[in-house]
Write a structure and sequence with these properties.
mainly beta; binds copper (II) ion
C-alpha cells in the first residue's frame, strides 16, 4: 500500500486490530516517524486475519476530524457466516468545533459539554451520601459522555440523521451488518426496533452466534450481526 500525504501536516495510518510488524503500525514517534506533508509511505505487511476492522490516522487529532475508514477482509476459505448481502455501518461523530478546541475545553472543565448537570436543589434522585460519593470521585453522575450531542452530530458512513439513509434488501434475505465504532468519544447502543440481531463476530473474530435486541459498542470496537428483516 502506497500512502501519499496530501495534507499540509504530518499524518499516519494505523490499521486498527490488524497484526502487523511494528514499523507498519502507523504510530508516529513510536513505531515510525510519521508521513510528512507531501510524502509517501509504503506499508507492506502480510494479511493474517479476516473480518471487520478499520483504519484511522494516529497523528494529532486527525481521527476526530474524519481521517478514518473501514477495512473488510474476506476469509481465504469459506465464510462460516452466510448472508445474502452485507453492509458496512461506520459510526462516527462530526463537530463544527476543531478537535483541538474540544480538547482545550475539556482540559479547562471536564463538564463543558455536559448539559445535564445537577445542582444542590434540583430533584435529581440522589441522596446526600450518593452525592458525596460522586463528589469524592470528582465525577458527575450524569457524566455519560465527555463530549455530547451538544456539539456532535452522529454519523453513519459519513451521513447525518437528517439524510434518511436507507439500506435495501429483498424479502427473506439474511443481511450481514459490519458495524464499526469509528468515533473518538462515543459509546453507541445499537437497536433495530422489533428486529432481533444475531452477533456473529466481535473485533473481527468470529464468535459463537448470540441473539440480542440491543448491544453497546465501545470506541474502536467492531461487531458483525446478521438480521433477517422480513
Ligand atoms: Cu485504533
Amino acid at each position: 500500500l502506497n500512502i501519499t500525504n496530501t495534507l499540509d501536516t504530518d499524518t499516519s495510518i494505523h490499521w486498527h486490530g490488524l497484526l502487523v510488524p511494528f514499523q507498519m503500525d502507523g504510530v508516529p514517534g513510536i513505531s515510525f516517524p510519521g508521513i510528512p506533508a507531501g510524502g509517501t509511505f509504503t506499508a507492506t505487511f502480510p494479511v493474517r486475519q479476516s473480518g471487520t476492522y478499520w483504519w484511522h490516522s494516529h497523528a494529532g487529532l486527525q481521527e476526530q476530524a474524519g481521517h478514518y475508514g473501514p477495512i473488510v477482509i474476506d476469509p481465504a476459505g469459506p465464510d462460516p457466516v452466510q448472508a445474502d448481502r452485507e453492509y458496512v455501518l461506520l459510526l462516527s461523530e462530526f463537530s463544527p468545533l476543531s478537535p483541538h478546541t474540544i480538547f482545550e475545553k475539556l482540559k479547562k472543565g471536564e463538564g463543558y459539554f455536559n448539559y445535564q448537570q445537577t445542582s444542590w436543589t434540583d430533584d435529581y434522585p440522589l441522596t446526600g451520601k450518593q452525592r458525596r460519593e460522586w463528589a469524592k470521585m470528582r465525577m458527575m453522575p450524569t457524566d455519560i459522555s465527555d463530549v455530547t450531542g451538544s456539539t456532535y452530530t452522529y454519523l453513519v458512513n459519513g451521513h447525518g440523521p437528517k439524510e434518511g439513509m436507507e439500506f435495501a434488501f429483498n424479502p427473506g434475505e439474511r443481511v450481514r451488518l459490519r458495524i464499526i465504532n469509528g468515533s473518538a468519544m462515543t459509546l453507541f447502543n445499537i437497536r433495530i426496533p422489533g428486529l432481533p440481531m444475531t452477533v456473529v463476530a466481535a473485533d473481527g473474530q468470529n464468535v459463537r452466534p448470540v441473539d440480542t435486541d440491543e448491544f453497546q459498542i465501545g470506541v474502536a470496537e467492531t461487531y458483525d450481526v446478521v438480521i433477517e428483516p422480513g
